[in-house]
Design a protein that fits this description.
Layout: H1 23-32, E1 36-40, H2 44-52, E2 57-60, H3 64-67, H4 79-92, E3 97-101, H5 111-123, E4 129-133, H6 137-145, E5 150-155, H7 161-164, H8 174-190, E6 194-198, H9 202-211, E7 216-219, E8 227-230, H10 232-235, H11 253-269, H12 284-287
Parallel strand pairs: 1-2, 1-8, 2-3, 3-4, 4-5, 5-6, 6-7, 7-8
The structure holds 3-methyl-2-oxobutanoic acid (KIV).
3-methyl-2-oxobutanoic acid binds near residues 196 and 198.
Length: about 300
């Protein structure tokens, strides 16, 4: 049991006014030159912190396969697992746009399969948009026709790990940069409302951002993108690995959590936890004498209400 409660609808501690972020409002931010902040989140508590801090877009990324589930890459996570986390995030988020990542294998066989899995993320997960990797123009068109907002994802697409031969910066040659540019325009034309650009040279991302009518959200794509996204666990150092070049660590949660857990263990081992103040008590009149042994049919002794 924990007394932690997160009543839905409670006033958040946020200093940010609660104007719901939508796909059209992200487009409006691009028009007004306002940077879009985005972060991943995978559970209720972190999603709630992220939302209350005023982040515009929360992505339930398939990176959860690695940072939450401990897989080597993102390929193993399933639709049902992603849905489980999307629902937790949905319960927490009131303001940000909630985007669910479509996992590897959930849209790769056919457009019809992609649409029906995307429907699940909207209907069962409560997502407001889905993200798909790669230049899948026909799928983006079909999702748009099915009223499902789409976030595209180009450049270093982790679900293409084996084809790429590793996590490598993409679009480094003129030809590859031109192809990326063409793919980005095609996705926007097919109806994508936002485009994530990952692991591409700053200059390439800047050129695409300048030409694209929809917001670009960069991760390892330089500062000219319309917005930025990071993996939450990278931001707070919970990855147990050296950070990639593009990651800025804003906190050391690993150190903080480690020290809290070590202090707790020491306190338990030295009987310093719990204290008397952290214990429940019998009412004074019932403390002495306590019955030596529990007696059959003995009246129960009222215990102070737990708080
Ligand atoms: O899964 C993920 O976390 C992502 C973002 C980093 C863009 O795709």
């Amino acid at each position: 049991m924990s007394l932690t409660q997160f009543p839905y609808g409670a006033t958040p501690a946020s200093a940010v006014p609660l104007a719901k972020v939508t796909m059209p409002s992200l487009l409006e931010m691009k028009r007004q030159g306002k940077p879009v902040s985005a972060l991943t989140a995978y559970d209720y508590a972190t999603a709630r912190l992220v939302d209350e801090a005023g982040i515009d877009m929360v992505l339930v990324g398939d990176s959860l396969a690695m940072v939450v589930m401990g897989h080597e890459n993102t390929l193993a996570v399933t639709v049902d697992e992603m849905l489980h986390h999307t629902r937790a995030v949905r319960r927490a988020v009131r303001r940000a746009l909630v985007v669910a990542d479509m996992p590897f294998g959930s849209y790769h066989s056919s457009v019809a399969e992609g649409v029906s899995n995307a429907v699940r993320f909207i209907k069962e997960g409560g997502a407001e948009a889905v993200k798909i990797e790669g230049p899948r123009v026909e799928l983006v068109r079909a999702l748009t026709e099915a009223e499902i907002p789409v976030v595209g994802h180009l450049g270093l697409t982790p679900q293409s790990l084996h084809r790429m031969g590793g996590y490598r910066v993409q679009a480094r040659s003129v030809d590859a940069a031109r192809q990326l540019h063409a793919d980005a325009l095609a996705l926007a034309e097919a109806g994508a409302g936002v485009l994530v650009l990952e692991g591409v040279p700053r200059e390439v991302a800047a050129a695409i951002t300048a030409e694209l009518p929809i917001p670009t959200i960069g991760i390892g794509a330089g500062p000219e993108c319309d917005g930025q996204i990071l993996v939450f666990h990278d931001l707070v150092n919970l990855t147990f690995a050296p950070p990639a070049k593009f990651v800025r660590r804003y906190a050391d949660a690993a150190a903080l959590f480690r020290s809290a857990v070590e202090q707790y263990r020491e306190d338990v081992e030295h009987r310093a936890f719990p204290s008397d103040a952290e214990s429940y008590h019998l009412p004074k009149e019932a403390r002495k004498p306590l019955p030596a042994e529990p007696q059959a049919n003995a009246p129960s002794i009222p215990v102070k209400k737990a708080v």
